Fold each of these.
Amino acid sequence: MPTPSWLSADDAEFITKGLSITLASRDLRHVPSIARALACRISADAQQLVVLLSRRQSADLLRDVAACGQLAVVITEPSSHRTLQLKGRDALINALEADDLTVLAASQANFAADILPMGFDESFTRRLYAFEAADLCRLVMTPTDVFQQTPGVDAGKRIGPQP
């Protein structure tokens, strides 16, 4: 995996390993919309963040992204609460690429392994990740802001890129 200039190698590995991913955008009146993503990856050229999600479960968010291009991606590791937030202004909706389902399967397996010790069994993860491949899409954005959001003294600290 290429390391982007807007993220450390450790943070790049973190966001792509299969965690809890929440997306947020807004409509033209600034009314927020949120959705849950299924997986996250970095583009082949290491310039963009790519998230995979269900169109059906994310209709409001996708409508808002299409209208304004703004997207916030919050990625959390449930077992440690380690959290990063990435923001961009140029998000686009694209069709899946050939290896996206492989990335999604790995993300699901890693997420399941992380929450298993907390009492969430495999059937929970299967239900959470239930999807039809034809329903999936990807959101692609160039991060303009990256923040440390892990609870603690550094929460809210900008870690890249600088404006």
Amino acid sequence: MTVSQEQIDQYQSDGAVVLRRVFDDAALAVITQVTETMLIEPSPRAITASEPGKPAFVEDFCNWQRFPELLETVRTCGLARDVAALMRSDTARLYHDHVLNKEPGASQPTPFHQDQPFYNVDGRQNVSVWIPIDPVDRETTLEFLAGSHDGTWYLPTTFYDKQAKWFPEGSLAPVPTVDRETDPILGWALEPGDAVAFHMLTVHGAAGNTMTHPRRTLSLRFLGDDVTHAPRRWTTSPPFPGLEQDLPDGAPMDHPLFPLVWPPDHSPDA
């Protein structure tokens, strides 16, 4: 599929948009296999964000180099073109991959938060694509506070114990309390092949997994034309140790860790 002008406008205004059947069967098969393998064979970066002894909520990051078929699929299935269109950017780079698994009964919610304050990048042209490989019902899906990507940065904290490990406590406003009765909340039930695209400053969160099957998801993060490196004094999530030696503060993200996926004729292996 190709994203429509209506979807681009919704992404720009709301900070989140649903993409139905964005992947055909071949692309979905690759994404499913890669996600399952990441969860079976986690990297040293894998973390558990659930309480000890409870059904697990597991995350892992930055595994795309282990799976060249994933990068090839992103480049050829239309996703790279579509994320560039959503960002209104001439280019798109893969920033990182992020696999998440909430086992059935994993009651630990994902609290409302923004993603970009955890990262080492500045700029407005970005998009995350949240890709479930299992059906996700409305109660368990990712939810978004429409319009919250207006440029305000909120304090990032750890999901489990709410500690400020990144920006110092008090340096940014806390994430606003989300009222589901009055606030404009977006969320969609999803099937494999669907995805949700959202801005890295859009406030979002999710409930625990009340379904009888896992909620396994691959998120792919993309950067556009205006994004630059923003080294931090602390370890970002995910970390990119030593990157500041190659990319100074304010430099474009032109580095092998962030492969160009759009336009295709500019990718290294085109």
